[in-house]
Specification:
mainly alpha, 0% strand, flat, membrane
């Protein structure tokens, strides 16, 4: 066997590690992008008088980023996705009785 040959196990593990790193980077980018206005409002409040209702806008963006993070985690985590899809199929297959 050649010295430069890599095993299939090593390649599989490296590919899996790259997928994990990509998912972590996506989650961090969502947090940074939607958390940036919050930081701007904090910096503005140190220099000048902040605009009216600045905290409401900032908290809305933080809450929105948390929702996106939860969706990303559900999408990236296969066991959680399987449970959600299983529950969805269970709910949609129920027969609803009607009274006439």
């Amino acid at each position: 066997m050649s010295i430069r040959a890599t095993s299939t196990q090593t390649m599989f593990q490296a590919r899996r590690d790259l997928v994990v790193v990509r998912r972590i980077i996506i989650i961090i980018m969502i947090l940074l992008t939607l958390g940036f206005p919050y930081v701007i409002f904090i910096l503005i409040s140190f220099i000048t008088k902040p605009p009216k209702y600045h905290l409401r806008a900032a908290i809305f963006l933080v809450d929105f980023s948390q929702i996106l993070i939860m969706i990303a985690v559900f999408k990236f985590c296969q066991p959680v996705m399987d449970v959600i899809l299983k529950y969805k199929r269970l709910v949609s297959s129920r027969v609803q009785p009607t009274m006439t």
